[in-house]
Amino acid sequence: MNLAVETFDLNRTFKLKKAKNKGENGNNNGKLIALENANIKIHQGELFGLLGPNGAGKTTLIKILATLLLPTSGTGLVDGIDVVKYPEKVRKKINMVSGGEHCGYGILTVRETLWMFSQFYGIATKVAHRRIDELLKILKMEEFAKTKIGKLSTGLRQKLNFMRGFVCDPKIMFLDEPTLGLDVQIARDVRIYIRTWMKENPERTVLLTTHYMAEADELCDRVAIIDKGRVLVCDSPQNLKKSLAGEAVFYIEIPLSVNGMEKFGQIPGVKQFAYEHKSHLGRTELKFILEEESAISNVTESLSGNGSKIISLSKMEPSLEDVFVALVGRGLKNEN
Amino acid sequence: MKIDLKTNIKAIIARSYVRIVAANREPSWWFTETLLPILSTAAYVYVYKALNAPEEYTGFVILGGTMSAYWIHVLWSMAAQFYWEKEIGNLELYMIAPISRMSILLGMASGGMFLATTRAVFIFLVGSLIFKVDFAIISLPKLFAVFVLTLVGLYGLGMLFSSLFMLYGREAWHGVTLLQEPVHLMSGFFFPVRNLGFAVALGASLIPMTLGLDAMRQLAFKTGAKSGFISADVEIAALVGLCVLFLVVSKYALEYMEKLGKKEGRLTLRWQ
Ligand SMILES: Nc1ncnc2c1ncn2[C@@H]1O[C@H](COP(=O)(O)OP(=O)(O)OP(=O)(O)O)[C@@H](O)[C@H]1O
Ligand SMILES: [Mg+2]
Prior knowledge:
The structure holds two protein chains of two kinds. By secondary structure, chain A is an alpha/beta fold. Chain A has two domains: 3-241, P-loop containing nucleotide triphosphate hydrolases (Rossmann fold); 246-317, Alpha-Beta Plaits. Chain A contains ten helices and 15 strands. Chain A has helices at 58-65, 87-91, 110-119, 125-138, 154-167, 184-200, 213-219, 237-242, 296-305, 320-328; strands spanning 3-15, 31-38, 41-43, 47-51, 73-78, 81-82, 94-98, 172-176, 205-210, 222-227, 230-235, 248-255, 270-278, 283-290, 312-316. In chain A, the strands form three sheets. Chain A has a six-stranded mixed β-sheet with strand order 7-8-9-4-10-11, sandwiched between helices. Chain A is globular and about 70 Å long. The model of chain A has no long low-confidence stretch (mean pLDDT 88). Chain B is an all-alpha fold. Chain B has one domain. Helix content of chain B is 77%, strand content 0%. Chain B has helices at residues 5-25, 27-50, 56-79, 81-88, 91-96, 101-131, 140-165, 170-186, 198-204, 208-220, 232-264. Chain A binds chain B through residues 14-15, 54, 59-60, 63, 66-70, 86, 88-89, 91-92, 94-96, 98, 100-105, 107-108, 112, 115-117, 119-122, 164, and chain B through 1, 4, 6-7, 10-11, 13-15, 17-18, 21-22, 25-26, 88-90, 92-99, 262-265, 267-268, 270-272. The structure holds adenosine-5'-triphosphate and magnesium ion. Magnesium ion binds next to helix 1 of chain A.
């Protein structure tokens, strides 16, 4: 089977400025390891997800593959082509969309902007306009075709950025948090589009990063979980969830309590623990992954010993988020 | 690597389109970009009149004011452009596109020349009419050649700056703003550069505007040749040299800065 992306021991370190010489990512001698011996294989036709907390190295990996950044060592192949040796050839096959970023010039209209970017890929103007019409329709942007992009709302500008990537019809698409900050409806449009686009042509491949576990679970054929520059696992969401089958996942709500959360991770029988403060609800949500179900009694004892009233307690099917918590040792949201 | 000429030409046209459109889409720009230069030009004219300077000085100043539209444009819309593009988020999109980065710069330059020309023509016509400038054109083809060479040289210089500034943030901006006024003085926008002395004039000649303005004055006014720095023909030859120099150097500077940026991770501003 053809590989769309393949990396061999990809490493990337950044020199740190003296002032912020205290990062967590295995930093020594003022160096920050953003990517450490990353090995991944993405098959042609696959929708592949990269999951990881902030600073895990997801964007770094994408930038290397998109020829925007050199690896410190190791090799990256895109469609079989070395990204360091032949970046010009790689560029003909790829495109990249980063969520939360803007593109173009405020003075141009949506249609003009898309046309301009299509020209950088040598697309005939007629073909470009046909594709623009299609994209505008699917992403429900038809009424904005003649709007100057400086006048678009943030969400619409991000949709535009998304269309900008697809109008060039790449073989391999890098999507760095494409739904970041989008409202539910727009995010759904975007996800639907990604899937339709993939279906149209079996040669197309997408590498996507996201913070939204549910999104990865729903969209991706396979995901890699990455933390502190290292790829921890790589499998289909189903298989990853199955790997947790022996364990029990419990979800508990207690009144908001900010201090001393770490000690709940030490309770006997608790494999992993994560929490999230919901101050607007006056609650703290706790998630326990237990070695076995019976350990829940230790948890409830310990909570009441702590004076925390339990508002609700429920057992859940393991989700991709739980796999993540079990591997990374913390949730995506409670960053230290 | 074979360069895909067709795609690159499309890229140049597409990038210049932005500026061609911009020339008329924001009417308020007309105000700042034409009225203000006309005012400062007029100020010089009145100063010279008050000092009883020779009649041609009015023409010299109008010519300087006209060309100043290009200089300001090169500084603000060429030299710092890649830095702005990085801020907006466009730079990385240009970098991942399968085209030469020079095409982007050439597109910016050619569109920019068009835009600045709409301003320059306006300043020139209004200035010449109000102050009744008396032209005595010695050689129209040469005058035209000087004009074109000056523009190519200037925008080549802008492209060079743009590559150099690509990796720098605020510093680039300060560098550019620092250049504006000294160059106005040293390039002789409002008086023949010869008055500054040979050494200064020679140094200032590195900026194509200096030689261009001087040659144009020599070719367009009766007494122009008398106040010229060196002969117009030599200036034309030097301008050709500057054009080639800036275009070639900016190509290499661009390649070098791109490589450096990829190595140090400074090609993109945000990395989250
Ligand atoms: N150009 C750079 N210079 C210095 N450090 C950098 C640079 N780019 C990334 N880093 C650092 O490398 C680490 C990995 O960053 P990266 O952007 O790849 O993370 P990420 O997984 O994309 O995070 P997020 O989820 O927040 O987008 C971070 O600690 C980041 O601060
Ligand atoms: Mg990122």
